[in-house]
Amino acid sequence: MEINLIAETLKFLVLGMSTVFMFLVLMVLVLNLQSKIIRKFFPHKEEVSIPKRPIAQKGNLAVIAAIAASLQSYKKSK
Asked: Residue ranges of the domains in the chain?
């Protein structure tokens, strides 16, 4: 009786894991097909580049200096 239960358990294990594996394979194939279809009908457009601002401007230099000084002060106190 016990051997029969182990065999049944192994059958369900193989059946369940193979079902999940086949679903995942099918999902990957469908997503790849969907990606190809989307690329065909909606090609990638060239993005407009936004010019970058300089990090430190005249007004920000004083703020950056104050933050750096406060960090140094905090590190020295610890």
From this structure: 1-44
